[in-house]
Amino acid sequence: MTGIARAGYKGPLRLLVLAGCVAAMALRAGAARPAETADVAWHPKNARIGDVAWLHVRDVPDGATVEGSVDGRRLTFFPYAGGQAALLGIDLETKPGVRPWRVAVVERGREPRSAHGTVRFEARRFPVERLTLPRPMVDLDPDAERRAQGEAQRLTTVLSAASAERLWRGRFTRPVAGTEPGTGFGARRIINGKPRAPHGGIDYSAPLGTPIVAANTGRVALVGEFFFPGRLVVLDHGLGVHTLYFHLDSVAVGEGERVERGQTLGTVGASGRATGPHLHFGAQVGAARVDPAALLGLALGD
Ligand SMILES: [Zn+2]
User: Fold this and answer.
1) What separation in Å is there between the alpha carbon of 180 and the centre of ligand 1?
2) CA torsion angle for 77, 294, 160, 85 (degrees, to 10)?
3) Which residues contact 246 (CB under 8 A, 6 or more apart)?
4) Hey, what's the torsion of the CAs at 246, 264, 292, 279, to 10 degrees?
5) pLDDT in tens, 230-279
6) pTM surpassing 0.90?
7) Residues with C-beta atoms within 5 A of ion ligand 1
8) Which stretches of the chain score pLDDT less than 70?
9) 179/163 Cα distance (integer angstroms)
10) 254 CA distance to ligand 1 centroid (A)?
């Protein structure tokens, strides 16, 4: 009895064990075929505050969609070198540290491929500039204050309207001739003893009347004569990239006009709040105020 019982018992147990093995093998087979990941490269690997970084997602077939975010901020991708790329601007007032990113490639008839990781935003020291300016240019009367605020609002509105088409191609070019690097990006300014907003662009000193050219192909998003920036031109290069040109003496383009890289926008002046003739050149990527030098150094190959 006992023997038979044992034998009768062993059978189902062995089956059970076998079934368990098959299940484990199936699981292992599933694990051995890794979930497909998206192929993402960061340039540079670790960016500094004020930099323009970019992600390159390789192997993206036509018709596939790439979506992604850095620190919860959505990225805008465009076709690039057999894959897709997106620019990431790191605003000059961003806190240094490690931020999460994620990317997903979605295409018909295939499991979505994704990738995620972290990127480090490295600290950068900014100069402190102490300036003394005529009091009416700093301590504004209520009318001037209202005007400056309205203009700042208008600028924000223009800069937040990103045209969906990528107009920029290849390298961004210096807006004035010469080799001297622009100065003062991110400078924490103390004007007449009071801390003010950091300097959002770089300044090129140049003689009055020096031609100013478009840094890249784009559309003229704004021409104006504002209290602080003076005569200004803002170019929309598409997908959230803008360049700004302040303190002009004359303007040679009109709003809505399409301009090519190197096309004259106007001439260097000292309009608005300026201590002498110079070009204030600014750059924005998305909502981030970035170092224009970083935009000029951007090395996307087309
Ligand atoms: Zn400036």
Assistant:
1) 15
2) 0
3) 201, 229, 230, 231, 232, 272, 279, 280, 281, 282
4) -40
5) 999 999 999 999 999 999 999 999 999 999 999 999 999 999 989 899 99
6) no
7) 203, 280
8) 1-35
9) 31
10) 23
